[in-house]
Design goal:
- Belongs to the GST superfamily.
- This is GST-like protein.
- Pfam families: GST_C (PF00043), GST_N (PF02798).
- It contains 10 helices and 4 strands, in the order E-H-E-H-E-E-H-H-H-H-H-H-H-H.
- It is α+β, with helices and mostly antiparallel strands and 232 residues long.
- The protein folds into 2 domains: 110 residues, Glutaredoxin, CATH 3.40.30; 105 residues, Glutathione S-transferase Yfyf (Class Pi), Chain A, domain 2, CATH 1.20.1050.
- The protein has a 4-stranded mixed sheet with strand order 2-1-3-4, with helices on one face.
- The protein is globular.
- The mean pLDDT is 97.
- Bound molecules: glutathione.
- Glutathione binds next to helix 1 and helix 3.
């Protein structure tokens, strides 16, 4: 039975699409239009109290029982372990893979996201906030540059969920005020991953729905206004 993937075409959604494509696991896309407020629908909240995509429902989870999961990092580990691929089997390499996955989850995702918020969406342009997150984005690129000038992939020799989690945040560098020419090892890694057919299929999932242009008042309300912060 296919895995239901509740998702939208954002970096956190693309991680899951790419992983499923790489693993060849059957899945059904359930679009959750976060600009239209669909993340607050009761059927989605039943899967995740955090009202953020992505979330999955696997009818054939551990022990043959259904499993619902949110948080993209947990989903990637679950899928990789289910298929027995994209996470190193060697115990030491496995920990290194999880380390870089956590680096993405705790560093790259939140910091790049805050940069986007203050540079592109905040109604006032706050120089301190923009500068603070621009510095973090640059610093995190330097950490990745150091790692990827030593090994081909974040976990070491093997392509893994650590690369898949990070890649969607590195594509579209202009959105983060980054010139990849300043980070040649990151650029080479990016180009290798971008050339993978499964990655190309993954980033195409719901691509026609990608938000472009300025944010509308109702999108702003759903994502950053009272609707977002209402008690549920
Ligand atoms: N830590 C979460 C973050 C998920 C997240 O921030 N998702 C965003 C899209 S990339 C979202 O659903 N936003 C909807 C909202 O802010 O209401 C994960 O990795 O799954």
């Amino acid at each position: 039975m296919p895995i239901d993937v509740w998702t939208w075409p954002t970096p956190n959604g693309h991680k899951v699409h790419i992983t499923l494509e790489e693993l060849g696991l059957p899945y059904t896309v359930v679009p959750v239009n976060i600009g239209a407020g669909e993340q607050f629908r009761p059927d989605f909240l039943a899967l995740t109290p955090n009202h953020r995509i992505p979330a999955i429902h696997d009818p054939d989870g551990p022990g043959g029982k259904p499993l619902a999961l949110f948080e993209s990092g947990a989903i990637l580990i679950y899928l990789a372990e289910k298929a027995g691929r994209l996470i190193p089997a060697d115990p030491a390499a496995r920990w290194v893979c999880l380390q870089w996955l956590m680096f993405q989850m705790g560093g790259v995702g939140p910091m790049f996201g805050q940069y986007n918020h203050f540079a592109a969406y905040a109604p006032e342009k706050l120089p301190y906030a923009i500068e603070r997150y621009r510095n973090e984005v640059q610093r995190l690129h330097r950490v990745l540059e150091k790692r990827l000038s030593e090994v081909p992939y974040l976990a070491g020799e093997e392509y893994s969920i650590a690369d898949i989690a990070t890649f969607p945040w590195i594509r579209n560098p202009d959105r983060r005020g980054v010139d990849l020419a300043d980070f040649p090892a990151v650029k080479a890694w990016h180009d290798t991953i971008a050339a993978r057919p499964a990655v190309q299929r993954g980033v195409e999932v719901l691509a026609a729905n990608q938000r472009r242009g300025t944010i509308s008042p109702s999108e702003r309300e759903n994502l950053f206004g009272q609707t977002q912060f209402a008690a549920r």
